[in-house]
Design a protein that fits this description.
Blueprint: H1 3-26, H2 36-52, H3 54-70, H4 75-113, H5 115-122, H6 127-135, H7 137-146, H8 154-159, H9 168-199, H10 205-209, H11 212-235
Helix pairs in contact: 3-4, 4-9, 6-7, 7-9, 7-11, 9-11
């Protein structure tokens, strides 16, 4: 494929990304974001809508999540949303699968169109990890996902393996396994927020924090961060 065609397709991809983001944010009532009643209305409407056809809505969410991640979307919002819409168990399952597919698509796009650019920008920064990944790309990328990408922004986590040309099958399944713990925590937080909005008449930050549907997953999140730091130190910060 010629460089001109690659350039055209790359620009088209970025154009689609901008249109998609504009469509998403244009649907929000920005002037009501500080109004608790707005969230209660959304919660009621969403609950009715999801309940009318759970399987169709799971399919739509699956497609939306893939597109969101493939277009450089952040990970946390989609996980909170899946917990709000489908609860912690179904939400975790659908988000793990859909985000893994979306990440694989983004990785494939980056490998094909932007490999040189990714190499130029990130190879020096992550040089100490490249040889490590090459030793056992499945294991180390699984750990990389598990520890939250060493603090790397989510969309960069998804394209980073371009540097060491990771096999797509290893990329996909190591992502799925690495995602599960963190995704479960965020989906649980989403489900807790949904229940809080449903049962509360007004917003109170203290009540929110001390609501067991929220503070328990936050405690799990803190534990996961601590565990991730320990694993990071033992796996990535030692000399190999």
């Amino acid at each position: 494929m010629s460089k001109k065609l690659k350039f055209f397709l790359g620009i088209s991809y970025l154009f689609i990304l901008l249109i998609f983001l504009y469509f998403i944010f244009s649907q929000m009532e920005i002037n009501r974001l500080n109004d608790f009643l707005y969230y209660k209305e959304l919660q009621t409407d969403l609950e009715k809508y999801i309940g009318n056809s759970i399987y169709i809505n799971l399919l739509w969410f699956f497609i939306f999540s893939i597109i969101w991640v493939a277009l450089l979307g952040f990970g946390t919002p989609i996980l909170i949303l899946s917990g709000i819409l489908f609860g912690k168990w179904i939400g975790t399952f659908i988000s793990v699968i859909s985000v893994s597919f979306g990440a694989l698509i983004l990785y494939s796009i980056a490998s094909f169109f932007f490999a040189d650019l990714v190499q130029k920008i990130f190879k020096t920064k992550f040089i100490k990890y490249i040889e490590l990944f090459k030793k056992d790309e499945f294991y180390y990328y699984f750990v990389f996902r598990f520890v939250g990408g060493l603090g790397t922004p989510f969309f960069l986590q998804n394209i980073l393996p371009v540097i060491f040309n990771m096999k797509k099958l290893n990329y996909f399944f190591s992502s799925i396994l690495g995602f599960i713990p963190g995704f479960f925590v965020f989906n649980t937080i989403g489900a807790g927020l949904n229940k809080y909005v449903k049962t509360s008449d007004s917003f109170n930050f203290v009540d929110l924090i001390f609501n067991k549907e929220v503070y328990l997953p936050l405690t799990m999140f803190a534990f996961l961060i601590l565990l991730s730091l320990i694993i990071k130190k033992k796996v990535f910060d030692v000399k190999h």
